[in-house]
Amino acid sequence: MNIPIEYTTGPRIKEVIITPIAIVDPPLLNAAGLHAPYALRTIVEVITDDNITGISEIPGNIAINEALEAAGKLIIGKDPFQLNQIKKILEKNFGKEDMSKRGLTPWDQRKLVHIFSSIEVACLDIIGKIINRPVVDLLGGKLRDRVPFAAYLFYKPEGAGGELEFNTDRNATGWPKARQETATDPQQMVQQAIAMCKEFGFKSIKLKGGVYEPQVEVDTMLALHKEFGPDVPLRIDPNGIWEVGTAIKVGQMLHGIIEYLEDPVRGQENMAIVKRELNIPLATNMCTTSFEDIPNSIKLHSEDIILSDHHFWGGLQSSMKLAAICETFGRDLSMHSNSHLGISLAAMVHLGAALPNLRYALDTHYPWQSDEVIMGGRIKFEDGSVEVPKGPGLGVELDRNALGLLHKNYLHCGLTKRDDETEMQKIEKEWKFQAVRW
Ligand code: GKR
Ligand code: MG
Predict the structure, then answer these.
(1) Is 393 in a helix, a strand, or coil?
(2) Whether the predicted pLDDT of 167 surpasses 70
């Protein structure tokens, strides 16, 4: 008989606290429009009856936060070690989430994956603190001490985000200066890349495309290649906005200078067609985005690299499960990102350190942010990589003062979800999001 074990001793979850925050975000352009002056995140604290607090961070969205409030109530009294049981409880109450709920945006809009990710990461933080081990040890242990990231370039108008939207600090130098400058043509993008790589030491570069006519973006890639040479791997991600024919032409023009092409088109079928025509690895965080998508991905060979994201794949342990699938079927695994702070970064680093194969540097938006919500301030990058935090659990602690201020930002900014189309219409009235544009 299948009787779940109920341990009579050990910690129980007594409280779940959900705090929405708004962090300053520059006006970055992408296929869906423009980033708002603030990016929303949600900080989750899970507290046990013996007062151990586990923390996590997920993308902010009022509908997800409301569902998370309800989820928090369901897990009161549960043992934080029993993650399988917690998952079942959540699945039972929220039902299976149809993939259509992901939406057409570059980011994932499903609720359950975010909810489970936030609770799982916070519980792993608790478990790590109880057994005095870093989270990476709960994922099978560390295979590297440092995790490499890539420079993530964005076309953008002038501005650094926040209250001073589109204002600039005239005294800024180095990366803080480049971060606020206009970058809309190939030479300006090269300058952005030079400043970002100098500050963070990145050794590979990603361009967020899907903003301009494909030829402009190809010219940007060629200019980056000319500046950085063959030893700096390049990638471009138009978030599925190209037609199949366009993607094939762009791929041919960039052949030999890119390490992979990310989501050139929408859908696994189209990705498979593009893949057959080009001898370039394809990566995705848009067409194979859940375990349900795996069988078809394997059947069609829609991509070579899955860009996982623990916020969207249901947590760190699920991401390890995905890593095993990738290893079995000869796929690579790397990581996707959205605007984020140090709790998410710490979780990504623990996961990155445990992944069996890590051929490609991970994505991160972190250089674009200036706020932080953890003690000790911003996490340091050296030579483009981040050291695995050494303390127990995630190895980062909440800075309550910063949390309070960032929550105030949330209350003042009036944003409740990410809506890049509306932001874009503030500078180009007629602009409309198109899932496929060129
Ligand atoms: O921040 O504008 C952005 C990106 O477009 C982001 O939303 C994507 O989800 O970085 C992401 C990606 O790789 O597709
Ligand atoms: Mg992408």
Answers:
(1) strand
(2) no
pLDDT tens, position by position, 176-231: 999 999 999 999 999 999 999 999 999 999 999 999 999 999 999 999 999 999 99
Q: Which residues line ligand 1 (CB under 6 A)?
A: 28, 30, 106-107, 208, 237, 239, 285, 336-338, 363
Q: Are 20 and 410 in contact (CB under 8 A)?
A: yes
How far apart are the CA of 310 and the centre of ligand 1, in A? 15
Exposed/middle/buried for 387, CB within 10 Å: 0-12, 13-18, 19+?
A: middle
Ligand 1 atom nearest 286 alpha carbon: 14
Distances (CA, A) of 82 to 7, 245, 295: 10, 49, 28
**Rounded to an integer, what distance in angstroms lies between the CA atom of residue 135 and that of residue 320?**
13
Comparing 36-40, 96-100, 196-200, 248-252, the range with the smallest average pLDDT is: 96-100
Q: How far is the CA of 131 from the centre of ligand 2 (A)?
A: 36
Judged against a pLDDT cut of 80, whether residue 39 lies above it is answered with yes
Cβ < 5 A residues, ion ligand 2: 237, 262, 285
Cite the active site residues. 208, 336
Q: What is the pTM of this model?
A: 0.96
Place of tokens 């929220």: 94
CA geometry: angle 270, 275, 281, nearest 5 deg: 130
Three-class secondary structure of residue 16 per DSSP: strand
Count how many Cα atoms sit within 13 Å of the Cα of residue 38 in the half-sphere of its side chain. Answer: 24
